């Protein structure tokens, strides 16, 4: 965990006081809506279909138990006893009253969290691997660099009014668990000739015009991270389009200029600033690294007796095989908590669940919790001998469904049930799919399969990179859904391919089931995953079956 | 540039004016008396562009009570009351179609 200093705490308190005054002036009529709207958005406050929505930033998806309890308290005091974890490792509260927002923000500020820069055309929360600091395939903990980016980008005066929002993701492991190739800037820490540096990708993104990011630098020395980012964002800020909101993201600029020409502009800018104040010397890196509290891990043996005994229980064994992965420290494990129960809204977590998870984090997990971009939570550091007790406790509160990475671990945007931009609902489709595929043994047999659902073309549900992507479209006040196949968001990211005309809401679950059945029938062996089968066979055999019985 | 209020409104049927209450975001409907009601059944129903324009002007003039006012097509019940005419407005009137996390 990164520990904020007195400067951070004072800044947050002042920001809450400022917002409290702005709200009071709006409610009294001293500020009009046109004046107030940009102020509330800068604090993460949206007005949605039914109420104000507060988006709270969780820097690089890392929380301590105290912060998670504070989120529970906000959910209980000011909202309706739950929050919704998002694909950018944040949390959203859907029902907060404007007059109570300053109090909610004050409660959050007490534990060092806020909604600043979770909206608006600025640099948003830098996201990363939910397994950071724990993964065995990691080169370094990427959160150090995410924190450096946070400090650089927070209230950056030059980048407060960009053409559009700007999202950065960073990965430092062999497997990309942060979807870096579909971000405005993706950073991949890797090793070359004994040194570590970044592959820099730009212009990735989903939405109405999806692109996979283009690599403009294979290897950027770590010391140049901030100056190079500054050069990229400055190039975008100066040249990005402001005439058309739909063409204002950096991906359009990169596409229109070409990656090579864009890179030349960045390099030209960078040459002028690379040896300036943004250079990260080792002392600067050490200063920030020193403020990260690393757990004092016990040296423990792998596969302790307690674990071996528990594995005789088929339910525990199924959960263990699905939700637990090895930790970089012997005798420990990384545990993913599924927020995708059968019939539940993906990513929702109740205040009571949050409190219990915070307790478990303190008791069994060195006090740390992570938010995964797949809308699940993670206990990153659990002793293997404690896994049976952790499982029982998680199961008791409904977050131990053994479906992580499987067909029912669905990413879904809030859709038309909450969102003022949506065309169709998406959560009910996810709920019906989890009910259709409720059998644990069946979904384990189907294996790894990512289903992503968006309720409109803005693609907050990441449908473009779902193995099965579902996009809601409205036709004459009826909900229809387009299906795409073959998308993926990992290091070999690819956009899914549309299989044909949109399907009525009443038929979409059947269509998805037919796609899954087609895979089961055609897979070369149980070891061939759904995505591997689609890549081998192409979409045609799936397309034929999805639309078959008419 | 033409402001939204100056643009000629195309009305395709019975229309009401809706917005979100400033204090808490609750969905509200403009009544014929110029007040805001949480009940769509109390909404003023307009059938001409001129009437919708007049109500919208009234609504936009009261942004300290309700914000983001717009014209929404409505259905008219046998009792002559407004009712939501599409899924979006049904959800705004009735709330999410799903139960939240339990």
Automatic annotation (TrEMBL), chain A:
Report domain Nitrite/sulphite reductase 4Fe-4S positions: 119-272, 408-545
The protein's required cofactor(s) are namely: [4Fe-4S] cluster; siroheme
SUPFAM superfamilies named in the record? Nitrite and sulphite reductase 4Fe-4S domain-like, Nitrite/Sulfite reductase N-terminal domain-like
Question: Which N-terminal stretch is annotated as signal sequence?
Answer: none
Query: Which Pfam families does the record cross-reference, listed alphabetically?
Result: NIR_SIR, NIR_SIR_ferr
- Lineage, top-rank taxon, reads Bacteria
Q: Which GO terms describe its molecular function?
A: sulfite reductase (NADPH) activity
Which part of the chain is the Nitrite/Sulfite reductase ferredoxin-like domain? 52-111, 345-396
Q: What is its EC number?
A: 1.8.1.2
Which keywords has UniProt assigned to this entry?
4Fe-4S, Iron, Iron-sulfur, Metal-binding, Oxidoreductase
> PANTHER family per the record?
SULFITE REDUCTASE [NADPH] SUBUNIT BETA (PTHR11493:SF47), SULFITE REDUCTASE [NADPH] SUBUNIT BETA-RELATED (PTHR11493)
UniProt-recorded name of the protein: Sulfite reductase (NADPH) hemoprotein beta-component
Automatic annotation (TrEMBL), chain B:
Q: In which domain of life is the source organism classified?
A: Bacteria
Q: Protein name, please?
A: DUF2849 domain-containing protein
